[in-house]
């Protein structure tokens, strides 16, 4: 069995902050599954991670005794051409794209480089997660549903489009919903629920135990990770997992991490009044950078919260462990482990943060471990 190590490309990891603060790049969700889950399906083997030292406490690296390790960039999507090129590598050979190593075999510096002749599908910036989520959902839908039979759709629902573009896993519940698959597929994961009055227009993915509340309006290309609960209006949103936006309010062209909560009425702008391209805060460069994006909403890292009726400006970046509340628009960059309102922000008290995180996670029968705490302490001390 191959020993495969998914590594964090330095530049990509920096450009994927703040989501990559708390996980290896390969643990980002894009489409239906995480990048790591895609590779596990594409190439069977023993998987581990080469990531930041503080993250290796949780995501460790295991090397093969004989040194025959296959290193693959964690921001890549597998496809047949790329997988073949990687599996064809000999010991001490590397596969490169635009001069950067995207895969290599063996330990140490490679003695030979081979330029990849294709164009890999990859994540290079944090906004790529929502910008290319349409293609990612379509790829994952094809892989996950091939050779499998969908559960039937309840006759209380209305399906618009080709029935083959709707796939329902066992245990999922859908009643009184309208699902339109003419623009893309809809995947409903195991034990997910779509309540009555909800309207969905693909491509959309609900992972296991995800919930769309009554009357929810979900546009593509949207992914709801495991145990996410949403309501109101969502358009082109990727929610990593275990996060909630359960009430009315708008969220568009956005990425939300794990264990986040957006209170009732929370709304995030995704378009400037001037219709101009947006600037976005780069945590890697510690400044605002220009983009070609006209639409960009909220980028929120793990364990962050927004109180009821919170309003976020276009292209707002929220770090890890933030608690924002009160009226008015916050700054378009809120640093990790801060709390407060437009009247002022202050550092989060870590013991109180751990208490809140533990209570929230316990509702989903997940434990906040001592290793998790060490990771958060490191992030807080190295802001």
Task: Explain what this protein looks like in three dimensions.
This protein is α/β, with parallel strands linked by helices. The strands form 6 sheets. Strands 7, 8, 10, 11, 13, 14, 16, 17, 19, 21, 26, 29 and 31 form a 13-stranded parallel β-sheet that branches. The chain has a 6-stranded mixed β-sheet with strand order 2-1-3-5-4-6, with no helix packed on it. It is 17% helix and 31% strand. The mean pLDDT is 96.
Topology of this structure?
Elements: E1 2-7, H1 10-15, H2 35-42, E2 45-50, E3 69-73, H3 80-87, E4 93-97, E5 100-105, E6 112-115, H4 128-131, H5 133-145, E7 158-160, E8 166-168, E9 173-174, E10 178-180, E11 186-188, E12 193-194, E13 199-201, E14 204-206, E15 211-212, E16 217-219, E17 222-224, E18 229-230, E19 233-241, E20 244-245, E21 250-258, E22 261-262, E23 267-268, E24 279-282, E25 287-290, E26 298-300, E27 305-306, E28 311-312, E29 316-318, E30 323-324, E31 333-334, E32 338-341, E33 344-347, H6 350-362, H7 370-381
Parallel strand pairs: 1-2, 1-3, 4-6, 7-10, 8-11, 9-12, 10-13, 11-14, 12-15, 13-16, 14-17, 15-18, 16-19, 17-19, 18-20, 19-21, 21-26, 22-27, 23-28, 26-29, 27-30, 29-31, 30-32
Antiparallel strand pairs: 3-5, 4-5, 24-25, 32-33
Q: Can you give the mean pLDDT?
A: 96
Give the overall shape, derived from the CA principal axes.
globular
Number of strands: 33
Helix content: 10-25%
The value of Rg in angstroms is 21 Å
The largest sheet is: 13 strands, parallel
Low-pLDDT residue intervals, each spanning 5 or more residues: none
Question: What is the assembly state of the chains in this entry?
Answer: single chain
Derived from helix and strand composition plus strand pairing, the structural class reads alpha/beta
């Amino acid at each position: 069995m191959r020993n495969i190590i998914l590594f964090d490309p330095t530049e990509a990891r920096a450009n994927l902050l703040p989501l990559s603060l708390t996980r290896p790049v390969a643990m980002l969700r894009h489409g239906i599954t995480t990048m790591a889950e895609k590779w596990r399906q594409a190439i069977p083997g023993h998987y581990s991670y080469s990531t930041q030292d503080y993250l290796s406490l949780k995501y460790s690296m295991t090397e093969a005794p004989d040194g025959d390790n296959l290193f693959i960039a964690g921001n890549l999507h597998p496809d047949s051409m790329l997988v073949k090129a990687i599996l064809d590598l000999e010991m001490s050979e590397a596969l490169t794209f635009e001069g950067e190593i995207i895969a290599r075999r063996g330990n140490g510096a490679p003695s030979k480089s081979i330029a990849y002749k294709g164009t890999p599908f990859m994540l290079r910036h944090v906004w790529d997660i929502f910008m290319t989520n349409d293609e990612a959902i379509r790829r994952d839908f094809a892989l996950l549903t091939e050779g499998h039979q969908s559960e039937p759709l309840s006759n209380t629902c209305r399906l618009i489009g080709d029935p083959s573009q709707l796939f329902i896993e066992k245990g999922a519940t859908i009643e009184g919903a309208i699902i339109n698959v003419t623009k893309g597929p809809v995947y409903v994961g195991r034990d997910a629920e779509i309540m009555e009055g909800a309207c969905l227009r693909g491509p959309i993915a609900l992972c296991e135990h995800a919930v769309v509340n009554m009357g929810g309006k979900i546009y593509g290309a949207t992914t709801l990770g495991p145990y996410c609960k949403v309501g109101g209006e969502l358009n082109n949103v990727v929610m990593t997992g275990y996060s909630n936006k359960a009430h009315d309010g708008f969220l568009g062209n956005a990425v939300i991490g794990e264990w986040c909560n957006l209170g009732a009425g929370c709304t995030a702008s995704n378009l400037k009044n001037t219709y101009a391209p947006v600037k976005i805060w780069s945590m890697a460069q510690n400044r605002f950078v220009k983009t070609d994006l006209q639409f960009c909403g909220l980028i929120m890292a793990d364990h962050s919260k927004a109180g009821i009726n919170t309003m976020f400006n276009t292209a707002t970046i929220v770090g890890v462990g933030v608690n924002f509340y009160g009226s008015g628009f916050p700054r378009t960059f809120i640093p990790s482990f801060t709390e407060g309102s437009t009247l002022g922000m202050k550092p989060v008290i870590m013991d109180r943060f751990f208490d809140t995180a533990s209570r929230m996670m316990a509702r989903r029968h997940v434990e906040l471990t001592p290793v998790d705490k060490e990771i958060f302490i490191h992030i807080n001390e190295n802001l």
